[in-house]
Amino acid sequence: MTALYLLDLVLVPAILLAACTAVGTRDRFAAVVSFIVYGLLLAIAWVRLGAVDVALAEAAIGAGLTGVLLLGALARMGRRADEAAAAGPPGRTLRLGAAALGAAVAAGIAAAVLALPEPAPQLSGAVAEALPALGLGNPVTGVLLAFRGYDTLLEAVVLLLALLGIWSLAPDPAWGGLPGLRHRARPEGVLAWLGRLLPPVGIVVGLYVFWVGADRPGGAFQAGTILAAVWILAVMSALVEPPAVRSLALRLALVAGPALFLAVGFAGLGLAGAFLGYPAAAGWAKPLILLVEAGLTLSIAATLALLVAGTPERAAG
Amino acid sequence: MSAWDLFTLAAVAAGAFFFLAGTVGLLRFPDVFTRLHALTKADNLGLGLIVLGLLPRAEGVFGALKLVAVWLLALLAAATVAQLVARLARREGDAGA
Known about the structure:
The complex is a heterodimer of chains A (about 325) and B (about 100).
Chain A: H1 2-24, H2 28-48, H3 52-79, H4 81-87, H5 92-114, H6 124-134, H7 139-147, H8 149-167, E1 178-179, H9 190-212, H10 220-236, H11 248-271, H12 285-309, E2 312-314
Antiparallel strand pairs in A: 1-2
Chain B: H1 3-28, H2 32-54, H3 60-92
C-alpha cells in the first residue's frame, strides 16, 4: 500500500506541474504538449481512483483527441501568426479578469467538494441493485445508457452541434466539399506503412472496447475515439480521402446513433411507460442497449474524425 | 518469495533502469537524432523488460498476450514516430536545436 501512496505523491505534483505549464508557458506548442501530458497523467490518476471507464475516456478523448484538435488549431494559427502579433498579447485587465474568474470557479468547486457531508451522498448502492434488471455487468454503462440516458443522448447531440459549428465556417465555394487540406505522404514512406499496418488492429481493438463495454470498462465513446483515430491515421497517411461533407452516407452515419437512441427512447414511452425507459421484460434491455451503443459508436467515430478533419476547404471534385 | 517473484523484480528493475537511461539521454544528448536514439531504443527495451517481468503475473494466457500486444504496439508507434521526427528535423535542418 505504501508504494502506491508513493506513486500518488509523485503523481499529484506532476499533474499540477503539467497543468501549470499548460496554462503558464508562452510557447504555444509547449502548452499543447503539456496539456496532453496533463491528460495522460490524469488518466493514471483515474485508474488509481478505480474509475477505469473515466480513465479510458480521459486518455482517448481528453488527451488524445483534444490534443490532436489543439495541435491542428496550432498549425493553423501559424499561418496567421502575423495577425496575432499585430493584435498584441491580451491586456493586463483581460488577463487579471480571466485569472479571477478561473480562480472563482476553482474555489467554488473546492468549496462544494469540501462541503459534502461524510459519508458523501451516493447512488452506487441503488445502481448496483437495479443493474441486474438491465442484464449488464458494467455499472457505468448502466448509468450512461439507462439511468442517466438523457445526459448521454444530449452529449451525442452536442458533438453533432460542434461539428455543424465547424462546418459552418466553410467558405461558400467549398460548402459541402472535402474537409481539411490535402494530406501528402510518400507512398513508400513509414507513415503510409503505419497507415496500412495499424487500421486492422485498431478496428479490432475499437470493436472490442465497444463490445466489452456492457460488462467491463469500455463503451461507445472510447470505442468511437479509437475508430476515429484509425480513420484519421488513414487520412494522414494519404491512403484515403475524407468524404465530401454533403455525402448522404456520411450524414446518415453521423445521425445514426442519436436517431437510434431517440427511437429507442420513444419506444420506451409505449413499452416501458417512460421516455428512454427500457421494457421490464427480462432479456429486452441489454440487446436494446447494445443496439444504441453500436449506433453511438458509429456516430461518435464519424463525428470525432470529422471534427479533427476540420472545415470543408475544397470543393468536391 | 518465489522464483517468479524474483524474476519479476529483476526484470522490472532492469526495465526501469532503461527508462532512466533513456530519460538521461533525452536530457543530456546534444541533438534531435541522438535524443531520439536514446528515447526509442531505451524505452522499447525498458517497456519490453517490464512486460516480460509482468508476464508471470498476468491473468491467464490472454492477459499475457494483451501485455505483449501492448509492447508490440508501443514498439511500432515509437519506431514510426522516431522516423517522422527525424525526417522533419533533417528537412528543417535544425537538428542542433
